């Protein structure tokens, strides 16, 4: 089943001034918990888990991971047990104060907390074998959910109605969503990816999944790294919501749209250019981010 997700026109003074058409595909409206790219990434993986006769999903993530929250809800909905290997052993006694982990727990996820050094071993066969010894046989979902089945699901984000756009823009975490968009794009379209992490190390990982070279990573809008924000980004997200009514998450989509508007200011796009940006959801993380911002005496995100 293909979803009919609306493309919402973004009407802002800068866009009118520069003659740029910007639309936002509202993937965040798919579901309150399994929204945006998380639904797309999980779709075929859940089918494959059932095909293999697995009754347990095991996956990885940080304390505010959208993927962890979505996997827990999806597993609960499909009658599967879920295990989350969570980065940060200091959370063992404090996870109840974390909105994302609370949500995952409410939907039945069992947590396995590991240190950051252990977490870096998550792809090592010996590490996975130890997890199997502890939890039995499971269907493995990678961190962020990215694998070939996730890329297949994300390719379904674009429809025939999206063929008229010149640029497709997406935030980038592990690269699966962008890879799917690249594979589904038209020969006259360019895909821009805005990484939430520092560096362009994802180029090789994305390249392993794609069938063309009509894409590039725009690496200037990570705001210092994963989950890092500042007052400028917060102000942009709050202004965007006030003007459009659309909430943005501060880790992915907010940074992407900040970057798009900055590129428009710099005249990177010619007048008449039509841009489609993908809203990949992640709104469940705003509560947790506001807790962090409050501790740092920074302005809060409007919810």
SSE arrangement:
Layout: E1 7-10, H1 13-18, E2 21-25, H2 37-51, E3 56-61, H3 66-77, E4 81-87, H4 99-106, E5 110-114, H5 116-119, H6 125-135, E6 139-140, H7 148-154, E7 167-172, H8 176-184, E8 190-195, H9 202-207, E9 215-217, H10 231-244, H11 253-265, E10 274-278, H12 286-295
Parallel strand pairs: 2-10, 3-4, 3-6, 4-5, 7-8, 7-10, 8-9
Antiparallel strand pairs: 1-2
- Total strands: the figure is 10
Radius of gyration: 19 Å
Helix count equals 12
Broad structural category: alpha/beta
How many strands, which pairing sense, and closed or not: the largest β-sheet? Answer: 6 strands, mixed
| Biggest sheet strand line-up | 1-2-10-7-8-9
Write the H/E string, N to C. EHEHEHEHEHHEHEHEHEHHEH
Outline = globular
Query: Oligomer, anyone?
Result: single chain
Strand percent estimate: 15-25%
Arithmetic mean pLDDT: 94
Helix content: 25-40%
Ranges with pLDDT <50 over ≥5 residues?
Answer: none
Query: What is the distance, rounded to the nearest whole angstrom, between the alpha carbons of the first and last residues?
Result: 31 Å
Entry keywords:
alpha/beta, 303 residues, 12 helices
Describe this structure in words.
This protein is an alpha/beta fold. It contains twelve helices and ten strands. A six-stranded mixed sheet has the order 1-2-10-7-8-9. A four-stranded parallel sheet has the order 5-4-3-6. The mean pLDDT is 94.
């Amino acid at each position: 089943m293909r979803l009919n997700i609306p493309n919402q026109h973004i009407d802002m003074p800068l866009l009118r001034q520069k003659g740029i058409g910007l639309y936002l595909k509202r993937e965040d409206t798919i579901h309150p918990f399994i929204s945006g790219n998380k639904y797309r990434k999980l779709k075929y993986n859940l089918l494959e888990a059932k095909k293999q006769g697995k009754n347990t999903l095991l996956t990885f993530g940080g304390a505010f991971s959208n993927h962890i929250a979505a996997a827990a809800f999806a597993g609960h909905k499909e009658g599967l047990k879920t295990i989350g290997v969570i980065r940060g052993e200091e959370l063992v006694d404090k996870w109840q104060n974390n909105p994302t982990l609370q949500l995952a727990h409410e939907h039945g996820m069992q947590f396995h907390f590991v240190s950051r050094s252990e977490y870096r071993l998550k792809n090592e066969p010996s590490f996975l074998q130890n997890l199997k010894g502890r939890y039995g046989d499971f269907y493995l979902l990678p961190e962020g959910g990215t694998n070939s089945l996730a890329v297949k699901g994300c390719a379904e984000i674009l429809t025939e109605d999206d063929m008229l756009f010149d640029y497709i823009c997406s935030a980038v975490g592990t690269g699966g969503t962008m890879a799917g968009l690249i594979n589904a794009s038209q020969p006259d379209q360019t895909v821009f990816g805005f990484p939430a992490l520092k560096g362009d190390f994802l180029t090789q990982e994305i390249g392993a999944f794609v069938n063309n070279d009509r894409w590039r990573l725009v690496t200037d809008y990570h705001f210092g790294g994963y989950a890092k924000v500042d007052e400028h980004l917060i102000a942009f997200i709050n202004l965007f919501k006030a003007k459009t009514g659309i909430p943005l998450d501060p880790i992915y989509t907010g940074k992407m749209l900040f970057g798009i508007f900055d590129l428009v200011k710099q005249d990177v796009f010619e007048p008449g250019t039509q841009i489609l940006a993908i809203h990949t959801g992640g709104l469940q993380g705003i509560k947790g981010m506001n807790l962090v911002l409050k501790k740092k005496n920074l302005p809060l995100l409007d919810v």
